[in-house]
Amino acid sequence: MIQIDNVTKTYNNSVRAVDRLNLTVNNGEIVGFIGPNGAGKTTTIKMLTGILKPDSGSVIINGCNMSTEPLKAKQAIGYIADSPDMFLRLKGIEFMNLISDIYKVPTDVRKERIKTFASRFDLTDVLDEPMQNYSHGMRQKMMVAAALVHDPAVWILDEPLTGLDPKSAFALKTMMREHADAGNSVLFSTHVLEVAEKLCDKVIIINQGRTLFYGTLDELTARYPDMDLEKIFLEMTAHE
Amino acid sequence: MNSYITLTKTFIASISMSEPQDKRRKIMILILSLFAVFGVLLPVAIAVGILVKLMTETLLPIGCQALGIQLMFHVICLFTVIFGINVIFNEFYFSNDIEYLLPWPLRAYQIVASKFTAAFYSENIMQVILVLSCIIGYGIGSKMGILNWILSVLGIITLPILPLTYCAILSMVLMAFTRVIRNKDRIQKISVALIFLMVIALVASIGFLQNMDIDTYIETLASGDQTFFKVMNIIFPNVPLFVKTFSEGNIVALLAYVVIHVIAVGIMLLLSEVLYFRGVIGLTSAGNKSHKKSLDKLLSQCKQKSPAYSYFLKEVRILVRTPVFFTNCIAINFLWPIFVYAMIKIMHYNITLEFLRSQYAERNLRIQLFFLLGIVGISVLVAAINSLSSNAISREGKHFSFMKYIPVPYETQWNVKAFVGILFPAAGVLIFFLPACIIIRIPVVHIILFTLLSLMSITFVSDMGIYIDSIQPKLIWDDEMSALRENYNTFFAMAIAIAFTAIVCVGGFFLFCNTHITIGFTALILVIILAIANLIVLYLTNRSGVRNLEEQEEA
Question: Fewest CB atoms within 10 Å of the CB: B70, B193, B330, B469?
Fold first, then answer.
């Protein structure tokens, strides 16, 4: 479960990127994080993962407060950053093992998971190659596999589908659904409204660091009858 | 012209480090800057100035007063070529912005001119200070007139242009004809290996030249043998012209100086139109794909390790596999014997292993002191020169957030980085020093003491380097070379290391020579000083090191 209470973040004492944001992602839910560029999505995600410290408010992951129990909170998270160009000098298998060691995944368990991810994302043939040889999409798949190798309860994914081929995108979406259905929480940011529409139980739309809407898609469409999601999004963000 | 100006501004902006946001860090950076400038940079500049003044005054009676400063300028130009070639290679061919520049409607000469200016800007600060101190030393020594002082201003900034032009032309020619090797890593390895060979050859040749002291050199000049100058004047014609300009107030020389630069830059830009795209297009970062293991084989080798050990392996793999880090941070640890050899030769010491063995056996206290202070000095300088620790956090670059979101305590990550910063210089120093000790038949107790001093020195520099880097790491860089060379933290750490070595070694020498303390007591003082230095850094780390990491908000 993810819980954000009244979180605020200001950069350089001048730019308020996130303004008193509240959000709860219950177990069993997939929540889509939507907003125009610069709305504060990535800043929020970075506060959720411990990369940034909020100026005020609290972030609680699976009952652990990020500011008082950061290691426990981080252990529960599977995080995919917005850029997959990470540690490109390492081979795929070395990167998977690094992440597995960091999250203390036992040898037998990791072998099984690496095998599963390699097969699901077509990574089998490239695991023994340095990641600098990979294409952008291949690197993204590797980041997805590494982020989930410790089977975290909470998935926090920043634009996870960017660069993935249709097969891998489908595999990831299926995994997100399976993960939520198993009683875990998934929060992911996206610009692709159709994905949010098909996959999410709830969406949160933010702009200029403030929540414009948080609820189910039915609630959203009921508020704007005769409009599709794209028009609703444009309508909401245009008035900000 | 507009494209050139815009591109140059962009490249120069990307060189500079971001300023800290909070007051605490601003004050710390200010203190470090002031220390680096007033504690190291200015004393070095003053020493160079005094050296040139002395040379000028010595050569004045024989009418060759300008030869001293000319020699210094030749050396500066030579070192500009040696250090500049790596910078130019990286700036022209290996920086990440190349792939964005190539699709733009830019001519090759526009890219080359802008990148050359940025490289010149980043390389010029130290040269300006050295050239300026040489001119001041010469001006005072030869009692230069106002007009001469005014004429000297031109060369203060422009002297490194010609050597850097050579680097640019050389890099473009080499890259245009390496079409078989299109792999960036391989080319970088070869180019860096060549530079290392050049440095080793240069240092070794200094060592072989037994008559490289200033007195013999002046005698050679006075006797009319100026072969060295003749050769160097052909290679760097800007030097004699510049010296003639301000020493004689010669306007013709000034014009010739300007013309030579216009021609050199013109040739570089013309060649860039022919060679640059030929060399840069098609470069790839892709590595070797052969000898791949099967998934089953890979999985059979998987074994759980502790987070700290795995993090350590990650650090080492990146350092060893990245050519720039490998050469500048790892290989450099193993080169110090060549420099020590050259220093001994320059200072005219006739030291052989046999001599050291006999003197040590006879309990020659000066030799024992030489070892005692030498091991501290070498350990501190080797640990600082490799930039392993003063670049430890900056090295993460845009992956810095990884340090923050993984469930590994900052203290553990810090300690692993510090350990890496200790491991390589310790290996580099001890791998030569310990066998030498055994050959010289130094008593075991002494060897243990030397090893302890070496490790304490390296630990101090490693922890100090990371602490400095944690204050304001350079996380935005285009290529690994920029993370090293454009990072003020490496300079600050080096400045502190140089000052520490000077105080401890020179102070220790004078203390021993001018008082009646024993060699054992000197050793004890060294241990205490190093223990205190380590405790101070440890205190700073505990007080604010981890806090610096926590508060650092990415690139």
Answer: B193
* Exposure string over B78-103, b if 16+ CB within 10 A, otherwise e: bbbbebbbbbbbbbbbbbebbeebee
Structural domain that includes position A195: 2-76+153-238
Mapping DSSP to helix (H, G, I), strand (E, B) and coil, where does residue B82 land?
helix
**Residue whose token pair is 């990245």:** B322
Nearest beta carbon to residue B314 from set A74, A87, A100: A87
Please tell me which of the candidates B310, B318, B404 has its beta carbon nearest to residue A89. B318
Interface list for chain B against chain A, based on CB atoms closer than 8 Å? 21, 285-287, 289, 292-293, 295, 298-299, 302-307, 309-311, 313-314, 317-318, 321-322, 398-399, 401-402, 404-409, 550-551, 553-554
Query: How far apart, in whole angstroms, are the C-alpha atoms of residue B45 and residue A95?
Result: 47
Q: Give the neighbor-by-neighbor strand order of the sheet with A64-65.
A: A15-25, A2-11, A56-61, A64-65
Convert the pLDDT of each residue in A150-195 to its tens digit: 999 999 999 888 888 898 889 889 989 999 999 999 999 988 888 8
Closest CB to B407 among A81, A103, A127: A103
User: Do B274 and B368 have their domain in common?
Assistant: no
CA closest to B547 among chain A residues: A53
Number of domains in chain B: 2
| Contacts for B409 with CB less than 8 Å, ≥ 6 apart | A71
Per the structure, how many domains does chain A have? 2
Q: Which chain A positions have a beta carbon within 8 Å of B551's beta carbon?
A: 53
B402 chain-A contacts, CB cut-off 8 A: 86-87
Distances (CA, A) of B273 to B29, B31, B99, B260: 42, 46, 18, 20
Going from the C-alpha of B165 to that of each of B118, B160, B409, B463, the distances in angstroms are 13, 9, 48, 39
- Do B400 and B493 belong together in one domain? yes
Cα four-point dihedral sign B27, B28, B29, B35: positive
Same structural domain for residues B508 and B398?
yes
| Helix locations, B41-65, DSSP H | 42-59
Are both B273 and B362 inside the same structural domain? no
Q: Are residues B146 and B202 in the same domain?
A: yes
Q: Residue B20's closest chain A neighbor by CA?
A: A12
Which residues in chain A have Cβ-Cβ distances shorter than 8 Å to B308? none
Distance from CA of B212 to the nearest CA of A (A): 45
pLDDT, one tens digit per residue, over B156-173 is: 889 999 999 999 998 898
Nearest chain B residue to A50, by CA: B405
Beta-carbon separation of B304 and A77 below 8 A: no
Q: How far apart are the first and last CA of chain B?
A: 31
Reading the block at residue B317, the tokens are 């793999």
B238 and B260 in contact (C-beta within 8 Å)? yes
HSE at residue B531, side-chain half, CA atoms within 13 A, is 7
B445-473: b (≥16 Cβ within 10 Å) or e = ebbebbbebbbbbbbbbbbbbbbbbbbbb
Residue ending a domain, choose from B280, B297, B328: B280
Percent of chain A with pLDDT over 70: 99
* A89·B305 Cβ contact <8 A: no
Q: Is A118 within 8 Å of B295 when comparing Cβ atoms?
A: yes
Q: What is the pLDDT of residue B226?
A: 67
ipTM comes to: 0.93
Size of interface A-B (CB pairs under 8 A): 107
Least Cα separation, residue A86 to chain B (angstroms): 6
Our CA-based measurement puts residue B123 at a distance from the nearest CA of chain A, in whole angstroms, of: 28
- For residue B196, the SS3 value is helix
pTM for the whole thing?
Answer: 0.87
Cα separations in angstroms, B118 against A152, B87, B262, B483? 46, 10, 18, 15
